[in-house]
Structures are given as C-alpha cells and as structure tokens.
Specification:
Low-confidence stretches: none
CATH class of the largest domain: Alpha Beta
Helix content: 25-40%
Number of strands: 20
CATH superfamily of the largest domain: Zn peptidases
CATH topology of the largest domain: Aminopeptidase
Radius of gyration: 24 Å
Structural class: alpha/beta
Largest sheet: 9 strands, mixed
C-alpha cells in the first residue's frame, strides 16, 4: 500500500485552498477557538447555526460534511467530533482522524488539510498531537486489495497537510509527523504481512522481508537455517516445524544506534507461526483462515526494528523471529512427545496447538545471550487471553516493575492499552510433568497465566515483559482506524516504548 504524504504548513483556515478542510470539535464546547470562529465569520455564521440546530454536536465519531459554496477557498469542511472534553485523550484525536480520512475518501478528495484541535489532552505537546493526527489519518486510510481483481477504483487520498497557526509551531509539528509516519508505516507493514495468505507468507518469505529491513542504516541480519538450529539444540522450535514442508527460519536483526556500542540492548522476540493448524491437536475448521495472522508478533518486532532505524533512535536493539509453520504432516510432533529446548530444559508436549510457547522458549533462551537491558516478547499466544480480556486490551506479564510501567505508559500514549495479569509461581503446579521438566499446557484454568509462567522459565535474570496479543490482533469489524481483519495492534506500543526510552 502506498502511504499518503503528510506535511506541516503555516496558514490560516479561511485562506487555504484545499479539497477538504478537517476541523475537530469537542461535544458541547461550541465553535473551536480561533479557527472555528474565523471560519464561522467567513461563512456568515453558518457553522454556529449548524451547532445550534444540533445537526452536529461533536459527539465521538460524528462526522458532517459542510459545502462552503466557494465562500472560502476550501471546497468543503469536514467536521469531526472528539466527544466530551473531560474524556479527551490522544486516542480520541487518533480516532477522529481515522473517521475523517474515510469521509475524505468518500468525497473523492485526493488531498486535504487539517487544523490542530483547539482543545488537547492534559500534558499533550504539539509533537504528541501531530503524531496522533498523522497516525489516525494514515491508519484510517488503510486498504488491502492486492489479491482482488475487482478492487475499488476510487480516488486514493494521497496527501494531508496539518496547518500551523504560527511559524514557531512548524518544527514541533514536523517532528510529530515524522514519528507518526514511522509508527503508522510500521503498522501498515504488519497489517500487510498478516493479510498475505500463508501460501505466500511462509517462513522463507518472512526471511526475505527481514533481508529488506536489513538494508536500513545500522541494521544487521543473521538467519539460522535448520541445520544450525539443530546444532545449537533448538529442539522446541524444530519440533513444531517438523510437520511442515516449509523450512523454519531463526531470524536475528541487530540495530546499533547507541553512542556507546557496548550498551546493553533492548531485545524483542516475536512469535512467528506463519500458519497454525494446531498440528496433530487440530483446530476446528471455523475461522482457521485467521491463523495466517499467527505471525503477528514476529511481524511487529520486525516492523519495530525498521522504525527504530528510520527514526535513528539512540539505542541498541535486537529483534528475534523464530519462524515456522505448524502442520499435521506425517513427521509432525505428537501429543506425548518430549522435546529438549535450547536452554536444556525438557518439555512434554501434551498439546501440539500450544506451539507458540515452544518456539518462544528457544527464542527467549537465545535472546539472553545478548544480556538484554530489557527483554520483551509479543505473541498471539492464548485463546484464554481472548476470554479474559476481550478485544480492547493486551495481556501483560513481567518480572520487572519499571519495565512494566514503561510499557503501560507507552500503551496509553499509543492507544494500545495493556492490562497486567498475575505471574504467581503457584500456577506452575499445573505445568508439572511426570516425564519431563515441564509440560506445555496446564489445563483450562488460568491458561494465559500458565503460558506466561512457561515462558518465564527461559528468560534468565533479564528484566522481562510478555505481551499476549491474541485478544487484539484480529478485528471482526471495522473501527475508526482499525480495519476488519489483521490490526497490527502492538506495533505502535513497541515503537512508542522505544521512543520513550530514547528521550
């Protein structure tokens, strides 16, 4: 998908020529100060009449198109509601811009302008607001039509300009746009990878995408093939891959951005199952096609690596993608098999559909070799996460309070919220095995917790957070800036965490 261009410009809302001008309104607050008043005066009081008629109130998600009849250079105004002022956060602005860009496309406008909102969340800077507006517009315009011969032929929105009322705002606006483009591009990249069918997006194709990312400045790539994994002792990852004709790949990308090259890195590990049938413990046929997105975690750590390089973040970063396909072939791992992990621990595989924690066990054990300052894994790990949290929160576990708080704050800023769950050792009783060091499932009760506890046995003493995105990676319906299907949720959280850590 081509990403629309975004720029900042100093200008007045009543003198700029554009196909559409977007204005953001808070519910019950009347005309936005300055811009709204200026436009209302130029339009002979028409905006005030519109508000008084209650045709437009500024409720969250409300959109009205107002044709200016050439009374001002902008052909049309697109009024978008932010909801009530006390409830205003960055994500309300992001959602409003998602709704706005959809309406811009419906109006067949190729370009548009947007005015900065007159009311912003407490503590939000101009950089924050510009980043958020950029993300909302870019993510709201997302479409995936590569495989459709009847793809919509409507006019694409190619450019957005954010108007700065004063020249001294331009530098901050430009920095916010730069960050917003990087985070939105990364999310679009993840959505594209997850939308491709699994006969295209194989472990080998993932490795090819990693090679492209490795062309970014400061990024280095290493790919371990099956023989190398076997020599190292990655029995868990290789066990999962045995049932597929697709060879597994173990992908390591490194970015050296810190001034001190020996600074301990942040290490990201992403579950990269390019298709998950469940293996011998076969999943039901219903909705199995969604399992092409079981590599969302891996796609997100790959995208975070690309974004860090493009933003030239001053930190060291490692992204690890254990990539495989989980299939029920004649050589497939069976329930009851025992595998030996890279860490030397043995695992009784009681359910081959609990494969994500197996490949992550080898990924996390390998990650400890980098002596990480922070170790984060992200994975579509458990159906139990969906049951516990629904579709609006990412499950978070961790061993380090400071790291967990940094992730929580990044999630709030990104609009990709996390909810902490307990990591109590008592739950490990459910994972005890009669024949091995542990088993890979712990029964129905506390399934999200036992999965996280399993992973905790492979992180050593590194500060560690586990993010379960099984509840958020796929949407059954289109929302403001979230498409139906793969969402890419978790990508901007990771990048925001890296940005925050770099400041």
């Amino acid at each position: 998908m081509n990403i629309m261009s975004v720029a900042a410009k100093q200008g007045r809302v009543d003198t700029e020529t554009t196909d559409a001008l977007v204005l953001l309104f808070c519910e019950g607050e009347g005309l936005p100060k300055e811009d709204g008043v200026i436009l209302d005066r130029a339009l002979g009081g028409a905006l005030r009449e519109l508000l008084q008629s209650k045709e437009f109130d500024g409720k969250a998600g409300e959109v009205v198109v107002f044709h200016t009849q050439r009374t001002i250079p902008a052909k049309r105004l697109i009024l978008v509601g932010l909801g009530k002022k006390p409830e205003l956060g960055l994500d309300q602005i992001r959602q409003a811009m998602g709704y706005a860009v959809k309406r811009v496309r419906q109006a067949k406008c190729g370009t548009f302008m947007a005015a900065l909102p007159s009311v912003v969340p407490d503590g939000a800077s101009t950089i924050d607001v510009a980043q958020t507006m950029t993300e909302g517009a870019l993510l709201g315009s997302y479409q995936f039509t590569i495989y459709r011969s009847d793809a919509p032929s409507g006019r694409d929105v190619t450019a957005m300009t954010i108007l700065a009322p004063q020249k001294d705002h331009l530098r901050q606006l430009s920095e916010g746009i730069r960050r917003g483009v990087a985070t939105a591009e990364a999310t679009v990249f993840v959505r594209d990878l997850c939308n491709h069918p699994s006969n295209v997006m194989t472990p080998t194709r993932i490795a090819s995408e990693a090679k492209t990312v490795a062309k970014e400045a400061g990024v280095h790539l290493k790919i371990l093939e099956q023989k190398e994994m076997d020599k190292l002792g990655m029995g868990a990852l290789l066990g999962v891959a045995k049932g597929s004709h697709q060879p597994p790949k173990f992908i390591i990308l490194r970015y050296q951005g810190a001034k001190k090259k020996d600074d301990r890195p942040v290490v990201l590990v992403g579950k990269t199952i390019t298709f998950d049938t469940g293996g011998i413990s076969l999943k039901p046929a219903e909705n199995m096609e969604q399992m092409k997105a079981d590599m969302t975690g891996g796609a997100e750590v790959l995208a975070a690596m690309r974004a860090a390089a493009r933003l030239r973040l001053p930190l060291n970063l490692v992204s690890i993608l254990p990539a495989a396909e989980n299939m029920p072939g004649g050589r497939a791992m069976r329930p009851g098999d025992v595998v030996k992990t890279l860490a030397g621990k043995t695992v009784e595989v009681q359910n081959t559909d609990a494969e994500g924690r197996l490949i992550l066990s080898d990924g996390l054990a390998y990650a400890t070799r980098f002596k990480p300052a922070a170790l984060i894994d992200i994975a579509t790990l458990t159906g139990a996460c969906v049951v516990a949290l629904g579709q609006f929160a990412i499950g978070m576990f961790g061993t380090d309070a400071t790291l967990k708080e940094a992730i929580r704050k990044a999630g709030l800023r990104a609009g990709e919220r996390v909810w902490e769950m307990p990591l109590w050792e008592e739950y490990f009783e459910q994972l005890r095995s009669e024949v091995a060091d542990m088993r890979n499932i712990g029964g129905r009760g506390g399934g999200m917790i036992t999965a996280a506890l399993f992973l905790s046995k492979f992180v050593g003493d590194a500060p560690w957070v586990h993010l379960d995105i099984a509840s958020t990676d796929w949407s059954e319906r289109e929302r403001a800036y979230i498409p139906k299907g793969p969402t890419g949720i978790g990508t901007r959280l990771l990048i925001q965490f890296l940005i925050d850590r770099s400041l």
